[in-house]
Amino acid sequence: MEKTKDGLRIYGSWAGNPTGHKEDVTRCIESVYGNERGAIPHQCDRKRGHGEDGLYCKQHDPNKVKAAAADRTARYEAENAVTNTKSDVWDAAEEVFRSQVGAGWELEQQRRAIGKLVAAYGAFERAKEHLKKLRG
Ligand SMILES: [Zn+2]
């Protein structure tokens, strides 16, 4: 980030406003964008006091930002696990069905197919439980 001679950060400098806005040392140093199109970055409006050297607001504290990203990843993976294990249950159920209607299946094959269904359903239930915990 560009800085003034006295070491203050400069926000939102562009051709139409080459000097931009000088850092307000009471506010969070994060550069944020408004929602409007072609928005110019500006300094976060919140008070600083969080993160390393207390330069960030609570929301932009880099550790919090990192933890939030890790939470999102974990939740995404948990949601995928629910989807995948559910599909495994259907596959296993189909196999059981085929073992019942298809001629020539040995009893042992049918037992294995049912065992697979029960295991798949257990994994599905655990995946749902895990996701529920992550969602709080
Ligand atoms: Zn902030």
Give a structural overview.
The protein contains 2 helices and 4 strands. It is mainly alpha-helical and 136 residues long. It has 2 domains: 60 residues, no CATH class; 73 residues. The strands form 2 sheets. Strands 1-2 form a two-stranded antiparallel sheet. Helix 1 runs antiparallel to helix 2. 10% of the residues are buried. Zinc ion binds next to loops.
Biggest pleated sheet: 2 strands, antiparallel
Poorly predicted ranges: none
Strand tally is 4
What sequence of helices (H) and strands (E) makes up the elements? EEEEHH
Q: What Rg do the Cα atoms give? A: 28 Å
List the helices and strands and how they pair.
Elements: E1 10-11, E2 21-22, E3 31-32, E4 42-43, H1 62-101, H2 107-135
Antiparallel strand pairs: 1-2, 3-4
The protein binds zinc ion (ZN).
Zinc ion (ZN) binds at residues 28, 30, 44, 46, 56-57, 59-60.
Keyword list:
4 strands, mainly alpha, rod-shaped, binds zinc ion, 2 domains, two-stranded antiparallel sheet, 136 residues
